[in-house]
Amino acid sequence: MRLKLFLIPVILIGVLPISKFAHADLMDNFFSIFEPSKEREIGAQQHSQIVAQYGGEYMKEGLNDYILDIGLRLAFVSEMSDLPWRFTILNSPVVNAFALPGGYVYITRGLLTLANNEAEVAGVLAHEIGHVTARHGAARQSRATGIGLLGVIAGVLTGSSAVQQLGQQLGGLYVADYSRDQEYEADQLGVKYLGLAGYPRDAMAGFLERMEAQTKYMVALTGNSGGGSFDFFASHPQTEDRIGRAAATANANADDLDREYGRSRYLGAIDGMLYGDDPKEGIIKGREFLHPELRFKFSAPKEFQLINSARAVYAVDGKGSQMVFDLGMKSNSGQSMADYLSRVWLAKIEVPSVSITEVGDAPAAVTRTVLDRNGQKVFLTAAVIDFGGNRVARFAYQTTNSDSALQTRFTESFSSFRPMDAAEAAAIKPIQVKIEMVSGNSEFSSILANMADVTKDKKALFVLLNPSFENGVPSVGQSYKNLQEGN
């Protein structure tokens, strides 16, 4: 969660694809045509905005050059080898990759955490290079899908799903909206580039399988059964279709290379990489959210899973109940919390009554109301706490469950909000990806015990990051990714 929020519309414009896989008849009315010389200019104009939206460029000794080497190895065998290609790692835990016209390719550290070897990363980069060489950068505007608390409350009123909106938010602020045919074309071009660059051609299908596993993990974690809502490549066609097509293309051009190509080299490159949220955006430790820069902390309700984003902090229980937290600003220093709650934050909702209270030593106000969503009762709890300097901590909880015990958990949650002192903030350490090795006495329970507390289902996350552990601890000497507090 950031103190300042920016929603920057991104306009991406390209020209008609020229490869043999193009479907010009479907896209003649969709593309805005620009000379190739303009494409680099367009990419350069958008580069700084994209980097800002994704938390800046992530820098780690050896890793940036390593990703650049992989990217250039693929770009040099493409139809646009003479472009001044640029490959950027974005400082975001979101699993995503995309490209801008003119050779700008982006990959998040969240995606690098999910990938298991160099070949999978090469498959992703090859696909994005395919979008550039086929000139798929059609004019479109990114969907700014971040939602604040009013957006969630409006969703209750209109019947839209806050969890689905959350899935879009997790998908990132940039969504390319490529057509199905464009995605398939980029897949086929990517397979071609993989082979020409000496990578296994089925590497792309391998990473698409990781994406499927990621989606299933998020669905299980949050209880969202919306299918594609937690597909982090939200702009792509259904992953199952793409896996099949990518595998078929690879099989038609079979090679003898191992899909685990470059695993040791890759794991060495990401060892020590930041995992999850950057501490400057706040971090999650179990049910607790801590923000060392803004100096506050609070706990989610029991049995809820926290999810951080640039716009707000979310929590879900997997049963349809949701929490959203963000910071607001009072119009003046003398404004009371009750006035802010009813006249500013919830001005569009009829608030039956407001309770004046304190959280810690800070003035606070709370309201509870019942809303109607397509004939279904939705119970809304909203609380605001004076955070000093005209800042207001805002909590909203919504549920269709009238259980009083759940309301008690909501109260415990917003009542846990506290400022942090300098010493407490300084003690918060980032979570890092650490590469470890299976030893003769390794047991799954001891490995998980050594894993940082970043999720309510540590085993599921560990297996997602290390699929070789799906059926138990693998053979001695095999490397795996673990998550630990850094320095």
Automatic annotation (TrEMBL):
GO molecular function, one term: metalloendopeptidase activity
GO cellular component: membrane
Gene3D superfamilies cross-referenced by the UniProt entry: Metalloproteases ('zincins'), catalytic domain (3.30.2010.10)
InterPro entries: Mito/Outer_Membr_Metalloprot (IPR051156), Peptidase_M48 (IPR001915)
GO biological process, one term: proteolysis involved in protein catabolic process
Residues annotated as domain Peptidase M48: 65-247
Transmembrane segments: none
UniProt cofactor(s): Zn(2+)
PANTHER family (alphabetical): METALLOENDOPEPTIDASE OMA1, METALLOENDOPEPTIDASE OMA1, MITOCHONDRIAL
Name of the protein this chain belongs to: M48 family metalloprotease
